[in-house]
Amino acid sequence: MLKKEKYLQKIYQGNIQRYGSNPKIRKVMVGPLAIGGGAPIIVQSMCSTDTRDIKATLAQIHRLTEAGCELVRVAVPDESASAALSAIVAEAGVPVVADIHFHYKRALEAVKAGVAKIRINPGNIGSADRVKAVVDACGSAGIPIRIGVNSGSLPDDILDRDSHKVTAHGMVDAALREVELLEREGFHDIIVSMKATETSVMIESNRLFRQKSDIPLHLGITEAGLPGYGSIKSAIGIGSLLIDQIGETIRVSLSSPPEEEIEVCWWILEATGVRRRSPELVGCPTCGRIEIDLIELMKDVQKILKDVSIPVKVAVMGCVVNGPGEARDADIGIVGGKGKGMIMRNGEIVRSVDEDKLLSAFGEELKILCYEREVANDKDLS
Ligand code: SF4
Q1: Residue 189 beta carbon below 6 angstroms from any ligand 1 atom
Q2: Within 13 A of 323's CA, how many CA atoms are on the CB side?
Q3: Whose CA is nearest to atom 5 of ligand 1?
Q4: Would you give the DSSP letter of residue 10?
Q5: Under DSSP, is residue 255 helix (H, G, I), strand (E, B) or coil?
């Protein structure tokens, strides 16, 4: 059984600070987890293990959740994969999503196994009877369906219409066509993704879809590439939409172990300010006025922050000329000077100490700040 209370506590009330998604978007429940309707933006990923290998799949799911993944998808290519699902669902500790292509029986088996969501395109599973069977099973079990449109597999008639180019209109039309197949059966617990390898197409598709529907959106760039470039592409695509309050759940797709995707997801959430779970460390870019070994100092500060799970903003600045002004926005800051330095809180100098005491003074002030935040959070939750 999913440890619902513990899981929800982590998502909604723990050290992970909550920022809502757009409250006007349709709320869809994925197990105990809300997507849309003002809920926090949810981080998800997909296992790269063979689902039939239950031990390896569970081990990867646990690594993913440890890294901050809140919803995990597994591939269900055949009957033996769906036979493994109930054991995976039982021990996963997070809601499990079954990824199904073409065969409606896999969807029925996945629902029976207790998955929290299925990803399937009704247009791929054949007759209306089969679509109805899947919709009925999901409806009775309270399981939503994610429709996934990918730039690499748009329907031929849409590609023909658009001169064989992948366009945002084509992506949206393909998604709405799938939505219609479900809504015609009276099924509305739907999430949609429109993933493209072209960042601009992905952004435009999601913007366009949002103008037409209140269905929650799962954001991602498909085939983004290796972690460096792929992370930048994903950050631009997902990040620019999140800043406009478009998107309710995200997945970064990298050519790497999926555990690496989770860190990038969280960086995107934190850099856009949409959701924070840890401190943000900013530093000056350094220039000819620098009076301290800023890079080493930042590395030391980063080590201290590893143990902090409260989302405070920390600034490290290199000189007293511009440092105090540039650190003004931070909750706590260090400003380096000649043989001396200052600790700032909310733009005010709170301590001035010799350089060798700077780090310990920062640690002391940080502890006080975290304590104050915890007390404030406890009050909010009581
Ligand atoms: S804080 Fe000082 S050292 Fe850093 S970039 Fe600004 S002026 Fe240069």
Answers
A1: no
A2: 29
A3: 286
A4: I
A5: coil
Tracing tokens 């809180």 back to the chain, one arrives at 345
* Ligand 1 probe mutation, 289, 297, 338, 344, most atoms within 8 A of CB: 289
Which residue, 119, 121, 57, is CA-closest to 83?
A: 57
**Quick one: which atom of ligand 1 is closest to the CA of 291?**
3
Residues in the chain: 382
pLDDT tens digits, 187-215: 999 999 999 999 999 999 999 999 999 99
Ligand 1 atom nearest the C-alpha of 287 is 8
CA dihedral 6, 11, 332, 354 (to 10 degrees): 40
Kindly give the distance from the C-alpha atom of residue 248 to the centroid of ligand 1, in angstroms, as a whole number. 38
294: Cβ below 6 Å to ligand 1? no
pLDDT in tens, 142-178: 999 999 999 988 999 999 999 999 999 999 999 999 9
State residue 381's pLDDT score.
53
pTM recorded for the entire structure: 0.88
Contact 145, 175 (CB under 8 A): no
CA distance 237 to 196: 10
Q: How far is 1 from 6, CA to CA, in rounded Å?
A: 12
Q: Which residue has the tokens 């055949």?
A: 78
Query: Two tokens at 85?
Result: 């699902």
Percent share of the chain, pLDDT over 90: 77
pLDDT tens-place string over residues 67-85: 999 999 999 999 999 999 9
Q: Is the dihedral of CA 355, 356, 359, 365 positive or negative?
A: negative
Task: Look over the chain and give the mean of its residue pLDDT values, rounded to a whole number.
Answer: 91
Domains and CATH numbers, the chain: 4-272 (3.20.20.20), 280-381 (3.30.413.10)
Q: How many CB atoms lie within 10 A of CB 351?
A: 16
- pLDDT at residue number 14: 43
| Cα dihedral 298/299/301/304 (nearest 10) | 170
Confidence at residue 276, expressed as pLDDT on a 0 to 100 scale:
85
